[in-house]
Amino acid sequence: MISKETLPTHWDFLPIRAIFEERKESNKNEQVNLILSLVKDIGIIKYSDKGNIGNKSKNDLSQYKIARDGDLVFNKMNAVIGSLGVSNYIGLVSPIYLVLYLRKPFQHNINYFGYFFQIKSIQESLSQYAYGIMKIRESIDYTEFKKMKLPIPPLEEQNKIVNILNIKISKIDTFIKKKKKFIELLKEQKEEIINQAVTKGIDKSVELKDSGIEWLGKIPKHWEIEKLKYIANIVLGKMLCNEDKGNYQYKPYLKSKNIQWLNTDVNSVEKMWFSKSEMETYLIKKDDLLLSEGGEVGKTCIWNNELDECYIQNSVHKVTFNKNTYSKFYLYLFFSYGKIGYFNAIVNRVSIAHLVLEKLENLIVIVPPLEEQKKIVTYIETELFKIDTIIEKTQKEIELIQEYKRSFISEIVMGKGICNEL
Predict the structure, then answer these.
(1) How far apart are CA 151 and CA 153, in angstroms?
(2) CB 3.0-4.6 Å disulfide test: which of 8, 321, 333, 366 passes with 198?
(3) Where are the domains of the chain?
(4) How buried is residue 365: exposed, middle or buried, by Cβ count under 10 Å (0-12/13-18/19+)?
């Protein structure tokens, strides 16, 4: 907890109301048209740079509040988890945001306060000025929040602190950006390893032939091409049933949102009613592949759970391969199909894409000899393990430098490490 005693003796310790004023400028005349957004741990960005995530923008620009260059902006609902920052634009923000501007801008450096509110312990402490029933959905009450006291170094010191942090944080952020780019390249390498192995094999010396399929190109000469229905049994899941029709049982089931590429999320499955015959049809067994029928069509995972009984809803296809095929090979083949867009090319579209049963049954698949399928899977998983080990190590490096970044900001902003940096 910050107190006057924990700060350098020549620093002030003043409430927000002595430093800031709330900006309540509406856009009723629509004089501003640049929409801004607050992103957790990043701050204010242009809404157009955000991508297709989060809340959608409003068409009526008069409903927004104006934030100006140098304003300190808080998402009152999510400030406690880092949704706040200093604006570098004149733009529009949600009317639920809290916008503050300096009373005496020539006596303070707004970026000092921007860094101050990046401190995680400070963000978490904002909950004491909020009201609500859930921690991350509490809303800051400005009447109380403006009483919060902030450390105030002399302006010259504020400027030095900001300069130190700008230089140091820029280097840290560049390091993090490079590490994240490295991880993305490694992920692309994983995809390429899978794609090459399942479509060309792992023997570089083998003779190739034209597959006759434009997007597939050449494949090993001894491989076959088949429709999926000739090497596997395919079942589309049951329509949702919320009532017991007599002698039904209430059983857990998977839907498309539970399916992740290459694995299954079964932590929060729902339940519905199944008859005895339906249970026999829709029961998932070990090594079955599960494909998303809608949403991210063709998204595939394998069922490795032998202990838990589970079934499928009609947004999921169940694929059970015959004895001459190795389901894990087709897990990786379907992953490759998804990445190259093959599933999207064959789906039925009205308003939402659907991979209907008929389309899936007639899906063109490659059929190497069984033992070769197994060798390919072993090769893929060996190579992916090597890359995943590097990714995990790199992610830990990022976490460590991010922790150092948070610690460094806290130390410098509070005046504890500034003497070593000046």
Answers:
(1) 7
(2) 333
(3) 4-152, 224-367
(4) buried
Give me the CATH topology for the region 4-152. Adenine-n6-DNA-methyltransferase TaqI; Chain A, domain 2 (3.90.220)
DSSP calls for 195-254: HHHHHH-S-TTS-EEE-S-TTT-EEETT-EEEEGGGTEEEEE-BPP--S--SS-EEEEEE
Question: For 69-127, how does the pLDDT look when each residue is reduced to its tens digit (9 = 90+)?
Answer: 999 999 998 888 889 999 999 999 999 899 999 999 999 999 999 999 999 999 999 98
Same topology between domain 4-152 and domain 224-367 = yes
Q: Which residues contact 219 (CB under 8 A, 6 or more apart)?
A: 199, 200, 201, 208, 209, 211, 225, 366
Residue matched to tokens 């009984």 = 309
172-177 long-range contacts (CB < 8 A, ≥24 apart) are 172/401, 172/404, 172/405, 172/408, 175/401, 176/398, 176/401, 176/402
37, 50 contact by CB (below 8 A): yes
Tokens of 100: 């503050």
Q: Give per-residue pLDDT as tens, 130-159.
A: 876 555 456 889 999 999 999 999 999 999
Q: How far apart are CA 306 and CA 69, in angstroms?
A: 58
Residue 250, token pair as written in the block = 């209430």
Which has the closest alpha carbon to 95: 75, 72, 120? Answer: 75
pTM for the structure as a whole: 0.83
300-302 vs 289-292, strand pairing mode: antiparallel
| Token reading at 186 | 């490694």
Task: Give CA–CA dist 139/152, Å, rounded.
Answer: 26
Contact status, residue 184 vs residue 46, Cβ threshold 8 Å: no
Q: Which CATH number is correct for 224-367, 3.40.50.410, 3.30.565.10, 3.50.50.60, 3.90.220.20? A: 3.90.220.20
